[in-house]
Amino acid sequence: NKIVRRVQLTGGSTFIVSIPKEWAEKMNIDKGSLVVLSLESDGSIRLFPSTKRPEPLASTEIRVKKGMSQGSVLREIMSKYLTGYKTIRVVFPSEDLEFKKAIRDIITRKLIGVEILHEDSREMVLQILVNVEDLPISSILMKMLDVSLSMLSDVRLALENNEKILPSDISSRDDIIDKLYLYGLRQLHTGLRGIISLEEIGLQRPHEVLHYAMVLKNLERIGDHSVSIALSIVELKDKKGIAKDLVALSDKTAQFVKAALSAFMSRDKDAANKLLDVDAVEIKSFENEIFRKLSQEHPEEVSTIRSIIGSYRRILEYGTDILETTIDIQNE
């Protein structure tokens, strides 16, 4: 609700604005209480009690109705997790072992810090034990990139040494990226609600939340395409004849996304523009060149080669998105 107040001048130099009585009573503010004024970059001011923050979302309940799919229930759980609830109680209309197994699986693979506090035939209580301030958003971004680059490094070794890649190993690392992505979104949401300060998760201004959410998504998609490349490598029948060019492309792409995230973290707009104007153009040209070459030399592998190079192209594009976000965040 918007409330209009007239600015008053006292003592010849001090501006005074009264605060609504209803809000003061709700926040237990009395004469002599301290409040904090946060001066925002857009010219606005945020006002909150110095010792009080919005209460964390303690608990919520999901009642599973007959006919609800496993997917819909799992999406509800994920949504509650992202919103910031500490306890999620899932109530089933009847005993359903398969449903519970699916929930346990998604918790294990996709969510950080979630434990099953209680379980019986009709309900399951999930407790989120992790505190969002334990891992700042910058560390989450770096860990997501590290996992993706480790997959690309394994692809490189598999190509150079004609080794096999274990799909199960790749899948487990994709789950790590998904966990970090969802955990990062939970952090951003909690910071927006004021449950913790933006500074505690490594941000400075509210508008940065949108930019960090975009970078989180870009890194999550880079992880997906790293998985796609690794799985496609398994299908190659003649790695030796293809290895040299794909290794070169892998190295160029990995260095590009690493430099892109570095530019974002350091707010280096000049580096971002250079990467966009020079490096990205060169890598795209190299992609086209090796696709033409390899598709002519290995026509029987053209479908797999197209898939691999296409995924490298998508990784490059997500890197350029990160660079454009770097420029945007600096211009606000």
Automatic annotation (TrEMBL):
InterPro entries: PhoU (IPR028366), PhoU-like_sf (IPR038078), PhoU_dom (IPR026022), SpoVT-AbrB_dom (IPR007159). One of its GO terms (molecular function) is DNA binding. SUPFAM superfamilies: PhoU-like. One of its GO terms (biological process) is negative regulation of phosphate metabolic process. It comes from the Archaea. Residues 9-55 form the SpoVT-AbrB domain. SMART domains: SpoVT_AbrB (SM00966). PANTHER family: PHOSPHATE-SPECIFIC TRANSPORT SYSTEM ACCESSORY PROTEIN PHOU, PHOU DOMAIN-CONTAINING PROTEIN. This is Phosphate uptake regulator PhoU.
